[in-house]
Amino acid sequence: MIFYFSGTGNSKAIAEEIANYIGTEAVDIIAADINQIHLENEEYVGFTFPVYAWAAPEVMLQFAEKIKVSETAFTFAVCTFSNVAGMALQHFSEIIPLKSGYGIVMPDNYPITDHIIDTKESSMVKLEEARKRLDQVKEKIAKKEEEFDVKMGEDAKTRTYEMAPVFNREWRKTAAYHVSDECIGCGLCERKCPAKAIEIQDGKPVWIKEDCYLCMACLNYCPVEAIDYGKYSKGRFRYFFKGFSKENY
Ligand SMILES: Cc1cc2nc3c(=O)[nH]c(=O)nc-3n(C[C@H](O)[C@H](O)[C@H](O)COP(=O)(O)O)c2cc1C
């Protein structure tokens, strides 16, 4: 079984493809009923997730804390990220000891800071590389190779162990979301929000929780780009996974 969390589809696509390759199931942790999860006879137990502030999303860590994995299972994690992952996998392994872990560089879905990580063009290049990388990774997982291979970047320890807690405590605020008059009231943002933080009121999204996962699903899936966060996202490239081929974008 492979458990995944995904805001904009990268980690979901990776989970589904590996699951298909090794003959198991990909399960969305947001939809899963924890009481129905029985892993005693699972040969593989995997986790895929985006890296958020150099760590696994808090919701994924909390999920991992609640499940029981047998010692005989081949445990692995595959994180997706746009730049560097810090010690996300090592940190995750403190909860579920991993036998292997990989990083796959994917397009950035976080256009809300003052620096641009990806444009449409760089995203297409990343998808092409990710396609090849995924083929290698799934093969290694199928063969149960015990390996860790992820681009950690500089200051990995500080970023993961000191910055990620700040992100979870202080940065995941919904107050900075705003909606333009372009909004057509389709409700896709509400349906896509894994934190259930959005409610359509009078035909427009309203953030009804103070914090969310900051997964960027609402902003990236909006069909008319009416959702922004803070002052940097306006007009920047919106991304969600539509397949590895650039013809889809
Ligand atoms: C809140 C947030 C924090 C992020 N932090 C990082 C990071 O620390 N390092 C990085 O390389 N990418 C970072 N990213 C980019 C995502 O990890 C990347 O685009 C990922 O593949 C998205 O996966 P998803 O489509 O499954 O949600 C961040 C994205 C978000 C939304």
Give structural notes.
It comes from Dorea formicigenerans. This is Ferredoxin. Residues 174-203, 204-232 form the 4Fe-4S ferredoxin-type domain. The protein folds into two domains: 2-167, 3-Layer(aba) Sandwich (Rossmann fold); 173-248, Alpha-Beta Plaits, CATH 3.30.70.20. The chain has a six-stranded parallel β-sheet with strand order 2-1-3-4-5-6, with helices on one face. Strands 7-10 form a two-stranded antiparallel ribbon. Strands 8-9 form a two-stranded antiparallel sheet. 31% of the residues lie in helices and 17% in strands. The radius of gyration is 18 Å and the shape is globular. Helix 1 packs parallel to helix 4. The mean pLDDT is 97. It is α/β, with parallel strands linked by helices and 249 residues long. Strand 3 (44-50), helix 2 and strand 4 form a beta-alpha-beta unit. It is built from seven helices and ten strands. Bound molecules: flavin mononucleotide. Residues 6-11, 50-54, 80-84, 106, 108-110, 214-216, 241 line the site of flavin mononucleotide.
